[in-house]
Amino acid sequence: MANDSKTWRCGKYELSFDRPRIMGVLNVTPDSFSDGGEHFDPDAAIEYGLAMLDAGADIIDVGGESTRPGFTPVNPDEEARRVLPVVRALAKEGAIVSIDTRHVAVAKAAVRCGASIVNDVTGFTDPKMVEFVKTSTCGVIVMHAGEVAAPARTHATVQLDTSAAAFVAEKAREAAAEKAREAEKPARRRRGKLLGEPKPEAKLPGGVVQPSLPFGEPEPATEPASEQETPAAEQAAAAETVAPAPEATEAASEPNDRLAAMMRRSARREEAYVPTSQLRRFTLPDSAPIMRRVMGFLSDQARALIHAGVSRDRICIDPGPGFGKTANEDIVIQRETAKMASLGYPLMCAVSRKRFVGAVSGVTEAAERDAATFGVCLGAIQAGANIVRVHDAAGFAQFLNGYWAVAKPQPRRAFVAVGSNLGHRCDNIRAARDMIAEIPLTCVSNSSKIYESEPAYETRQDAFANAVIEIKTELAPLVLLDELMKIEAELGRDRSKKAKANGPRTIDLDLLWMDGETHGGKKLRLPHPLIGERDFVLVPLEDLMHDPARFFRYNGVEVKEPEDRVGHIVGELGRM
Q1: What is the spatial distance between Cα 380 and Cα 367, in angstroms, rounded to a whole number?
Q2: Contact 483, 474 (CB under 8 A)
Q3: Of 192, 93, 209, 203, residue with least CA distance to 529
Q4: Are strands 96-100 and 59-63 parallel, antiparallel or unpaired?
Q5: At what angle do helices 287-308 and 327-335 cross, to 10 degrees?
Q6: Contact 132/99 with Cβ under 8 angstroms?
């Protein structure tokens, strides 16, 4: 299940999987299959990314190149121009940002701008990409993109004849054919090797072999007849009447883009009707050969990354639904989620709005497939998927919170800072504590003493009363924060624009930290970004834990020395 012991290290962040994590899709492209380029403008993309964080997304996956079937490859410079402002702005707000790219130059630039994850749709089959990620600390997503169907076999018609003469004649024909094939071999060499020989594999440092791309063989090019063989009149007529096919034009402009070629083949294979004289006996193809190819590639690539120097706890795997796979094959792969989870790496479910989701739900328009997407994701979570990559992050967060609350009892520890400098300060703090205890799925487990402190930031105001409350809760962080804001409003806190941000207030509730949670955005940052400089928080925390400064430093928070902090404690006001 998703609440397992796996962790995923992504730069300065560490994601635990005591609950599934939500990756919001942010396409900064004009031709995305699902959102039609709604977020192509950088400002619109940044605003939408922050909205997804505030709605419950844990990670934002930023991509500047659409890889839908029939996509047009994007120059790395253009891709970088699209994504880097977005990556930089989201990372500045504390977001865990993933860069969805197959170009090493774009990955390098994005990581320098603050991205914590490299999501490579080609599965790190480029040695240059491997060389880069081994020198960084970012998380990596290994995705399988390629056809999983075995090549079709052609069977010759067999004529049975039991006569001895027929048997001898057949043997003679086989021997002659074999001799002809042997004589033909030297003539079949091209560029120094036999046709059909395996392509040389790139080697990584340390002698590790890097497999070739899993995209199958590129489409064979048709060699035109020479001008000497074609009458001039026929050539002229052909030039006037025959226009080049769009595919041929694409292939000519992108001769080496094997991913684009594979996705074009995938689209045709999905849409084409192939008549057959023998009906299938089963609703789905055999899972064994499909999973051997998918799991074999994912495990091989993960091991290659480890041997190259990438720590195992930085690796996540993704079977790549929709990339070179038919609807039937995608369903087979999703049903085998538990097997993929057993490989031991964090597992991603990236099925959002894909063609096979439309096929099983009967929904034609990609943007209308969110409800069906949630159903497929729930099945994957139950089978062991740890991360879900979705377009509708807000809707899925609601869906997941509802499911998780009743299906997975999971109390987690959190700390809430409480302060007041208007009215009866200590009574306000005690009232807030009692109201926190009434929040659904939440209880107060401990409280610090109430301390008096100097005002921080806005110094020309009365001294504050401060405390920290330790709670246990089963709510998601953003849901808990909404409940705390309701308590502030009920106790008279003014959060309107006319009120000073750090001015006098009847009550102030800050969610400081929650077990296993890291979050960024405008609405909530976890751990609280100012916790390490606030004496009026760190001193009350000493009543609840041993050496809070050491605790938070271990969790990646910069904690200042007492003399460098703000809001120094000046006395005690009593017990809670």
Answers
A1: 21
A2: no
A3: 93
A4: parallel
A5: 70
A6: no
* Structural contact between residues 519 and 58, judged by C-beta atoms closer than 8 angstroms: yes
Give the span between the Cα atoms of 87 and 64, in whole angstroms. Answer: 11
Do residues 130 and 124 make contact, with C-beta atoms less than 8 angstroms apart? yes
**In this structure, what token pair is assigned to residue 203?**
């080697």
* CB 415 within 8 Å of CB 526: no
Question: Cα–chain-centroid distance for residue 24?
Answer: 8
Residue 152, helix vs strand vs coil: coil
Cβ atoms of 328 and 360 closer than 8 Å? no
Question: What's CA 301's distance to the chain center, in Å?
Answer: 17
- 419 and 432 Cβ atoms separated by less than 8 Å: no
Task: Give the whole-angstrom CA distance, residue 102 versus residue 121.
Answer: 6
Residues 6+ apart with CB under 8 A from 44: 38
Q: Are 59 and 117 in contact (CB under 8 A)?
A: yes
| Sign of the CA dihedral running 533, 539, 544, 550 | positive
In whole angstroms, give the CA distance from residue 24 to residue 59: 6
Find where tokens 């040389």 sit. 200
CA–CA separation, 234 and 159 (whole Å): 43
Phi, psi of 414 (to 5 degrees): -150, 160
* Spatial contact of 331 and 376, defined as CB atoms under 8 Å apart: no
Q: Using CA atoms, how far apart are residues 396 and 351, in angstroms rounded to an integer?
A: 13
- The distance from CA 111 to its chain's CA centroid, rounded to whole angstroms, is 15
Q: What string of pLDDT tens digits covers the 576 residues of the chain?
A: 445 678 999 999 999 999 999 999 999 988 555 555 566 689 999 999 999 999 999 999 999 987 766 567 889 999 999 999 999 999 999 999 999 999 999 999 999 999 999 999 999 999 999 999 999 999 999 999 988 876 555 444 455 554 555 666 777 788 888 877 777 665 544 444 433 444 455 565 555 555 566 655 545 544 444 444 444 444 444 444 334 444 444 333 344 577 767 666 666 665 554 444 456 678 899 999 999 999 999 999 999 999 999 999 999 999 999 998 999 999 999 999 999 999 999 999 999 999 999 999 999 999 999 999 999 999 999 999 999 999 999 999 999 999 999 999 889 999 999 999 999 999 999 999 999 999 999 999 999 999 999 999 999 999 999 999 999 999 999 999 999 999 999 999 988 888 888 889 999 999 999 999 999 999 999 999 999 999 999 999 999 999 999 999 988 899 999 999 999 999 999 998
Retrieve residue 107's tokens. 């990955």
In 3D space, the residue among 416, 425, 424, 423 whose CA is nearest the CA of residue 452 turns out to be: 425
Q: Which residues of 428-454 are buried (b: 16+ CB within 10 A; e: fewer)?
A: bbbbbbebbeebeebebeebbbbbbbe
Centre a 10 Å sphere on the Cβ of residue 106 and count the other Cβ atoms it contains: 28
The identity of residue 321, as a single letter, is: P
Q: Which helix (H) or strand (E) holds 344?
A: none
- Locate tokens 């880069």: which residue? 132
The residue type at 239 = A
Q: How far apart are CA 484 and CA 512, in angstroms?
A: 12
- In angstroms, the CA 319 to CA 172 distance is 49
| Close Cβ partners of 143 (under 8 Å, ≥ 6 residues apart) | 119, 120, 121, 122, 123, 317, 318, 319, 320, 323, 350
